[in-house]
UniProtKB/TrEMBL annotation:
The protein's name: FAD-dependent monooxygenase
InterPro entries: FAD-bd (IPR002938), FAD/NAD-bd_sf (IPR036188), FAD_aromatic-hydroxylase (IPR051704)
Keyword list, A-Z: Monooxygenase, Oxidoreductase
GO MF terms, alphabetically ordered: FAD binding; monooxygenase activity
Organism per entry: Glycomyces luteolus
Protein's UniProt keywords contain Oxidoreductase: yes
Every FAD-binding domain range: 4-163, 273-339
Keyword Lyase: no
Length: 400
């Protein structure tokens, strides 16, 4: 029998993970990606819980450990740059039990390396239209001829075009959490060495860190922004909004903002989640952020993408390519996604503090905690919640 052809829209973490497991299970995946190449850089991400088992089964654990950020300390600073509180990097990041922190771009390249020679990747193109047929889906591409596929999977992120074509407008599914987020590379003018500094102002937070092996640093901005309205194709307007949000802010913020104009990996978006009643329609399905974006505040988007790619490929293999597998995949993944989505709204409230009074109280508490013996135990409830969600799925064993 000919291999089942599966179009995967998006070469991010979810798409490349799915492509790997589809190929390993005997399918013929084709990955189309709008960007001209893999996206470099990106913010640091954590691989936790069930996702650790997925990368272990892919043989990637050792390379991931070698590429880890190795952030060793994290400090809170005031407007004059004085450190008011500090924790070790793992405690600050809520990591334990072998969790791995790595840059998103590094993980993307590792996943791509597993599949580059075996999977048909088509960069610089995207899906234009989907036309269901009796035995599959006819797909029209922006820059290619129309082709027929047995199945189509949207792995193209929060603003998924595949979701829009198969399920309807983004506005029907997006839930804005009321914050903006931006991240990009900056010069390491502070001379940081595997450490992270965070500055908190009323309604806005800025941080910068340097990871192992990097000459540059990375900045992250997270601020309160109800109904953030912007053009996703207009970088200049995004930079202007970021500058406006942090106007007259102290510490190193003006220098960090100056790098936004030329950073090669500039990222800007609203902090949002995707909530859908179902993730499949006929022979089309969604995975990763396209299906259930938990937001960057959850810290679990990458783990959801890794687990989702593994589970969807495994269920399709069990069903020999029958789209009925989509329901089984969703049955396993939905409780897991829901548990991790719940982390986003609660986490962001601790990241962005609305008033000077509350900031003062939080800084005083953190200063006290950082001086106490056994301070790791005081962070226990936060870490426990993260790891409960990260392990909220019994990961199946599939044949391949």
């Amino acid at each position: 029998m000919p291999a089942v052809r599966v179009l995967v829209s998006g070469a991010g973490i979810a798409g490349t993970t799915l492509a790997y497991w589809l190929h390993r299970n005997g399918f013929e995946p084709v990955v189309v990606e709008r960007a001209p190449a893999l996206r470099p850089g990106g913010y640091k991400i954590d691989i936790r819980g069930a996702a650790l088992e997925v990368v272990e089964r892919m043989g990637l654990m050792d390379p991931i450990r070698q590429a880890r950020t190795d952030i060793r300390s994290a400090s809170i600073v005031n407007a004059k740059g004085r450190k008011v509180a500090g924790l070790d990097g793992d405690t600050f990041g809520g990591r334990e039990h072998g969790d791995a922190e790595i840059h998103r771009g590094e993980l993307g390249h590792l996943l791509y390396g597993l599949t580059e020679s075996a999977v048909d990747y088509r960069f610089g193109d995207s899906v234009k239209a989907l036309e269901p047929t009796g035995d599959g889906v006819d797909v029209a591409f922006e820059h290619g001829a129309q082709e027929h596929f047995d199945l189509v999977v949207g792995a193209d992120g929060l603003h998924s075009r595949t979701r829009g074509l198969a399920f309807g407008p983004e506005a029907d599914y997006v839930r804005d959490l009321g914050y903006g987020v931006a991240s990009y590379s900056v010069p390491n003018d502070l001379g940081l060495d595997r450490c992270e500094l965070t500055y908190v102002g009323p309604g806005r937070t800025a941080l910068v860190y340097n990871a192992a092996g990097n000459e540059h640093a990375t900045a992250l901005f997270l601020w309160a922004a109800a109904a953030l309205d912007y053009d996703r194709s207009d970088r200049a307007s995004q930079v202007a909004l970021l500058r406006e949000a942090y106007a007259n802010e102290g510490w190193e913020v003006p220098k960090l903002l100056a790098a936004a104009e030329t950073a090669p990996d500039f990222y800007f978006d609203s902090l949002s989640q995707i909530h859908m009643d179902r993730w499949s329609q006929g022979r089309a399905a969604l995975i990763g952020d396209a299906a259930h974006c938990a937001s960057a505040a959850s810290g679990q988007g990458t783990s959801l993408a890794l687990v989702g790619g593994y589970v969807l490929a495994g269920e399709l293999a069990k069903a020999k390519g029958d789209p009925a597998a989509f329901a089984a995949y969703e049955g396993l993944m939905r409780p897991f996604a829901k548990a991790n989505q719940a982390l986003g709204p609660s986490n962001v409230k601790g990241m962005v503090i609305p008033t000077k009074a509350r900031i003062g109280a939080s800084m005083a508490f953190l200063a006290l905690v950082s001086r106490l013996p056994g301070k790791e135990r005081l962070m226990g409830p936060v870490v426990k919640a993260i790891h409960k969600a990260a392990n909220a799925i019994d990961l199946p064993h599939y044949g391949a």
